[in-house]
Amino acid sequence: MRTGVEELDSELRRTRQWIAAVHARLKEHDLRLAMTALQDTLHALRDQLDPELAARFAEHLPLPLKGAYYEGWRPSAARPAASADGFLARVDSSTFQRLGITVERAVKTSIEIICGFIPATELSELAAALPDDLRRLWPDEPAPYPEHRTGPTRLH
Amino acid sequence: MQQTGIDVLDRTVQLTNQWLEDVGAYLDTPDRQTAYRAMRAVLLGVRDRIGADNAAHLAAQLPLLIRGIFYDGFRPSATPSRERSREAFLGKLDHAVFRGLQIDPERAAKAVLRVMAEHIDPNEIEKVAQLFPEELRDLWPDVADLPPRPSKRAGATERPHADRR
Asked: Is the CB of B64 less than 8 angstroms away from the CB of A95?
């Protein structure tokens, strides 16, 4: 499906790349699940951040994912989770459980893909805003410092 | 039309196309690109004028892709932009866009605000219009004058798994 506006259609293509990358890692499940995982993870990340940083992070998302990211955002009511468990608890697990995958796997996979598409400098700032034990959800240990990741997605 | 296999994207493209068509109709242009650039400039102007919390309420009513456009380049700490006069508000809209398109910013603002009012919950539109100073308020259409909205446009759900909630 297209809008006929080149700028928007190219953002839609980019979005499909992000979703396809998550899908490729979650294997057997459909694209809808990949989109859900990505969107829920983006919401959980967003709610860790103060409005200014949340908005800066959003600038790296293709427009349709930016729209998904901002869905239900309350800029003055950020309630950051204090632990990885608290963070994961923010994600509605029912869809994932029904399909036999854990929330942790869905979120970790999504974070990996997000990290692959976002500049390393931005990631270190994002990581700094997250609870320490959340770093177990990041693709590499320690958390992605500037030298850690550059360029496009690296699939293992 | 070819589907993406991701319902939420297909649905939002459909809705976005409706908005673009409507904006194009009010601006008398069949060109999608023109409608898009005018729509984007006005959405950003409204967003910055009303402040981050109000913008979030308004954004909740927008189709996903249009919400992405609405928030493009957003800097919450730089809002609200507080223009009081008509010139100041219209002057703040991205003039390069309108010069290039040869469209008067006021005409574009009225067209886009009308399309918003036709697609969004009238209560929300009323609230946002009230946030505009008197001098700017008539850029918004009178909600009472609008034709009743077709129900398919109301509260469209765009969750990838709409059955979840």
From this structure: no
- Pairwise CA distance, residues B46 & B93, whole Å: 9
C-alpha A121/C-alpha A146 separation (Å) is 5
Contact B71 A12 (CB under 8 A): no
Q: Of B78, B75, B47, which is closest to residue A54 (Cα–Cα)? A: B75
Residue type, A25: R
d(CA A75, CA A55): 10
What confidence tens digit (pLDDT) does each residue in B63-108 have?
Answer: 999 999 999 999 999 889 988 899 999 988 877 788 888 889 999 9
Amino acid (1-letter code) at residue B139: L
Question: Inter-chain contact B36–A75, Cβ cutoff 8 Å?
Answer: no
Two tokens, residue A2: 């297209």
pTM: 0.88
Interface of B with A in 37-56 (CB under 8 A): 52-53, 56
Query: What span, in angstroms and rounded, lies between the C-alpha atoms of A107 and B82?
Result: 40
Rounded distance between C-alpha atoms, residue A144 and residue A135, angstroms: 9
Q: Using one digit for the tens of pLDDT, what is the confidence trace for A57-111?
A: 999 999 999 999 999 999 988 788 999 999 999 998 888 988 889 999 999 999 9
pLDDT of residue B147: 67
At B116-156, the pLDDT tens digits run 999 999 999 999 999 999 999 999 998 767 666 554 444 44
Number of helices (H), then strands (E), in chain A? 8, 0
Q: Are B84 and B135 in contact (CB under 8 A)?
A: yes
